[in-house]
Amino acid sequence: MSTLLLAFGLMLVIEGLLPFVAPRVWRETFRRVTELADGQLRFMGLTSIIIGLALILLLG
Question: Considering the entire predicted model, what is its pTM?
Answer without folding.
Answer: 0.70
